[in-house]
Amino acid sequence: MAKYTELLSEYLENNALPVIFNEITGFADLFTGYYADYEIGFETETLFKLKLETKANIVIPEYKKIITQVETALNQVLTTTKTRQTTLNAGEQASQSYNLPYNNVTSVEPSQKAHNDAFENVDTTVESGATIDENLRIIAELEKKRDNIFEILLLEFKQLFMCIY
């Protein structure tokens, strides 16, 4: 323990973190755990508290928006639907059909009839969402992004603590 400096853990015995930290779920605990053994970078607790509040009021709202967007995307992963549309266009099809004579004694030859019709088939399928594998990959990627956002947010406060040269 240093003689003339104070660790964040010692500071928190008499002071609290800014209230705005609570706007991001779990961030106050994450901040405390990350910086507990760092020495505050100002001469007085009052000055540190002022700088911490100011920095938090500047950065927390922006990061809250980003984290909310990632959380929304995570929630939407499980509720998405896919629509697949397959179109088969076989073009014009030629065919012939024959009519045999019924009780017709004058002609024994069948009559021939030719058809030229276009054929197109459109098949639309709506699925309940992504496959389990797709969901797991998307969730893993979004959670990784969220964790990176938390790391970047924590580093925003590093300048408030003493640096070792």
What would your notes on this structure say?
The chain has 165 residues and is α+β, with helices and mostly antiparallel strands. It has two domains: 8-80 and 130-160, no CATH class; 83-127. 44% of the residues lie in helices and 21% in strands. The protein contains four helices and two strands, in the order αααββα. The protein has helices spanning 8-14, 27-35, 45-77, 132-155, and strands at residues 82-99, 111-127. It has a two-stranded antiparallel ribbon with strand order 1-2. Helix 3 (45-77) runs antiparallel to helix 4. The longest helix has 33 residues, at 45-77. It is rod-shaped, with a radius of gyration of 35 Å. The model has no long low-confidence stretch (mean pLDDT 82).
Keywords:
single chain, two-stranded antiparallel sheet, 21% strand, alpha+beta, 2 domains, 165 residues
